[in-house]
């Protein structure tokens, strides 16, 4: 059984010109010629072409491919083993590259769809990407973090402005309660803390009462959060934490002093 140059080109997904070139440089000479002088390829030629294309796909120059294929000390089985190992190594490299790209995609934080000007319009002088490395290091392996990244990737400037306005409204109402001398354990403050938790669930990730208490404590223990939250009103971070803890207890979550 023999095949024309056009048939082989179709089988292999290469051009006729490529096969002509391989013939001209001695890399793949057809096993026979027709009476009219046309190239005819047999099964052995197709096997050699397959090995050539394997090595070419892996980036080997034609000169090196020729040396590898014509080495008398390497039998066809050895070629297959070598190609298998090279392909396995390449697959592993590509897998690692894909994982790195995926991590980079997930690591993009708030404002992924925003220009620098739009970020400033939405967040003011707060840069949502400022602590990205720390955020990924601390919470990157959690489902909540992954969920927040999935949502953030789909949000537009209008979405972020709405979310920011909702958060600012909650903060302003907390400040009003503080100004009125309302205790953080009051029904009003606990109700607003529950609204704060549901705002997080709606906007960023599923936030149960236990996680909400962790956030509340962090608002006070990390001075960066405290300073940012207290911009709305001095003492808001502490008041917010206490209201969150009281609300969690009201919903059956046992809050201990050291937890």
Automatic annotation (TrEMBL):
Signal peptide positions (record): none
Coiled-coil region(s): 77-104
Keyword Secreted tagged: no
UniProtKB keywords: Activator, Coiled coil, DNA-binding, Transcription, Transcription regulation
Residue span, HTH merR-type domain: 1-71
Highest taxon, organism lineage: Bacteria
Keyword GTP-binding: no
Entry protein name: MerR family transcriptional regulator
InterPro entries assigned to the protein according to its UniProt record, in alphabetical order: DNA-bd_dom_put_sf, MerR-type_HTH_dom, MerR_fam, TipA-like_antibiotic-bd, TipAS_dom
Taxonomic classification: Bacteria, Bacillati, Actinomycetota, Actinomycetes, Kitasatosporales
């Amino acid at each position: 059984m023999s095949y024309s140059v056009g048939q082989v080109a179709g089988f292999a997904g290469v051009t006729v010109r490529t096969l002509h070139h391989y013939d001209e440089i001695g890399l793949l000479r057809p096993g026979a010629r027709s009476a009219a002088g046309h190239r005819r390829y047999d099964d052995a030629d197709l096997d050699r072409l397959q090995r050539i294309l394997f090595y070419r796909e892996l980036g080997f120059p034609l000169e090196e491919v020729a040396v590898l294929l014509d080495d008398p000390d390497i039998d066809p089985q050895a070629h297959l083993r070598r190609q298998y190992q090279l392909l396995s190594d390449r697959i592993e490299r590509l897998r690692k590259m894909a994982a790195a790209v995926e991590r980079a995609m997930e690591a993009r934080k708030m404002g992924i769809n925003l220009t620098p000007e739009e970020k400033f319009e939405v967040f003011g002088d707060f840069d949502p990407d400022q602590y990205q490395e720390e955020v990924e290091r601390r919470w990157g392996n959690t489902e909540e973090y992954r969920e927040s990244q999935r949502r953030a990737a789909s949000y537009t400037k209008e979405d972020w402005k709405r979310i920011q306005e909702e958060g600012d409204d909650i903060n302003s109402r907390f400040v009003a309660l503080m100004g009125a001398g309302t205790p953080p354990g009051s029904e009003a403050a606990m109700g607003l803390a529950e609204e704060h938790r549901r705002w997080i669930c709606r906007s960023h990730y599923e936030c149960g009462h236990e996680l909400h208490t962790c956030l509340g404590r962090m608002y006070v223990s990390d001075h960066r959060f405290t300073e940012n939250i207290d911009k709305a009103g001095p003492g808001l971070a502490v008041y917010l934490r206490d209201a969150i803890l009281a609300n969690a207890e009201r919903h059956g979550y046992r809050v201990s002093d050291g937890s």
